[in-house]
Design goal:
Length: 254
């Protein structure tokens, strides 16, 4: 399975390339996780050009989630009130949930909501500097809530109750974005950035959610505002997201 290009590693990335190509050529099958990544990856395209455009050993098999694997966590989530557990407001909120990493686009997300009434919940752990920035904004602005790492059941409760999921990743290191699949499984609309990877294959712009340019706080803000202020749009996008989950990313589909 070829999941992600080497991104922002300088000379180490160039040194790795011949080894990666050799491994691809020795494989009986090469699996990419989305059509987008297959056709946007320089390494995969180089491999296909060397072996011919009709190369038979290349396949696309998306990542996915079987609902059966989530049954226990979802059952536990039924007893969780996110308002009581995390002190969240009863009003709709948008959710970022994932690792706090450099490629996740969190500075853009914070800039998009700073000084605005958009309700945002940030859950996850990772980079300490990013965690401090989120915590400071949450302390300064009562519409932003920083809850840190959550359990599987708490994650299911947050996905159940949110108005939509935001994944502002701005580098190709975000090769797929499984949180988008989890959002679709819960019939929640999504906001992601166009970075040429599987994120824009899971989340179809205007159909299952909204896709915006990376590192553009204004565009991200407008997309978030749409989901919060237009519940009918959010609901319709969420229904379409669930259909796409069932077609491509469910256990049965895989």
């Amino acid at each position: 399975t070829y999941h992600s290009d080497v991104v922002n590693k300088g000379l180490a990335g160039y040194a790795y390339r011949p080894t990666a190509l050799a491994a691809l050529h020795r494989a009986d099958r090469v699996v990419a996780t989305s059509d987008n990544y297959l056709y946007s990856s320089p390494l995969l395209q180089s491999f296909m050009q060397r072996t011919g455009p009709g190369v038979s050993q290349v396949r696309v098999i998306p990542l996915g989630i079987s609902e059966a694997s989530c049954q226990a966590a979802r059952a536990e989530a039924e007893a969780i009130s996110v308002q009581l557990r995390f002190g969240l407001p009863a009003s709709p909120f948008l959710l970022f949930l994932g690792g706090l990493r450099g490629y996740k686009g969190l500075p853009t997300l914070l800039a998009a909501v700073r000084g605005t009434p958009i309700p945002l919940v940030v859950a996850g752990d990772g980079d300490a500097r990013l965690a401090r920035e989120i915590a400071q904004l949450a302390a300064d602005q009562d519409t932003v809530h920083w809850i840190g790492r959550v359990s599987e059941a708490e994650k299911m409760a947050l996905l159940r109750d949110c108005a939509g999921v935001v994944l502002p990743s701005d580098l190709r290191s975000e090769a797929f974005g499984l949180i988008l699949v989890e959002a679709a499984m819960h019939a929640r609309p999504m906001i992601s950035c166009e970075i040429g990877t599987g994120t824009s294959w899971v989340n179809l712009n205007g159909e299952t959610g909204i896709v915006v340019p990376p590192r553009d706080p204004n565009a991200l803000h407008e997309a978030m505002e749409q989901l919060i202020t237009n519940p009918e749009l959010a609901r319709n996008l969420g229904v379409a997201a669930r259909r796409r989950y069932e077609q491509y990313f469910s256990g049965e589909a895989l």
